[in-house]
């Protein structure tokens, strides 16, 4: 499941990794960058633009479901929004 952790079930393309960045993964969804950043105790998911709320929710739920399965425990999600 780790191989598919950052591949949500929405149409997307993988973006190339930046050499100096470690544990940062990017996708392009509908022309918008979706960034996953791994830290020691969490993963930050950032949508760097505007996507339909349904698409954002699908990406969020996909990540939560995969993390729950990998960790075999409940995963908490803190939703932050910046205008």
Proportion in helices: 10-25%
Q: What is the count of distinct domains?
A: 1
Provide a count of the helices: 1
User: What structural category characterises the helix and strand content?
Assistant: alpha+beta
Query: For the CA atoms, what is the radius of gyration?
Result: 13 Å
Structure description:
The mean pLDDT is about 90. The protein has about 80 residues and is α+β, with helices and mostly antiparallel strands. It is built from one helix and four strands; from the N terminus they run ββββα. It has one helix spanning about 55-70; strands spanning about 15, 25-30, 30-40, 45. The chain has one domain. Strands 1-2-3-4 form a four-stranded antiparallel beta sheet, with no helix packed on it.
Provide a brief overview of the structure.
The protein has one domain. Helices cover 23% and strands 24% of the residues. The protein contains one helix and four strands.
Helix and strand layout, with pairings?
Elements: E1 13-14, E2 24-29, E3 32-38, E4 43-47, H1 53-71
Antiparallel strand pairs: 1-2, 2-3, 3-4
Give descriptors for this structure.
24% strand, single chain, 4-stranded antiparallel β-sheet, 23% helix, 1 helix, globular, alpha+beta, 83 residues
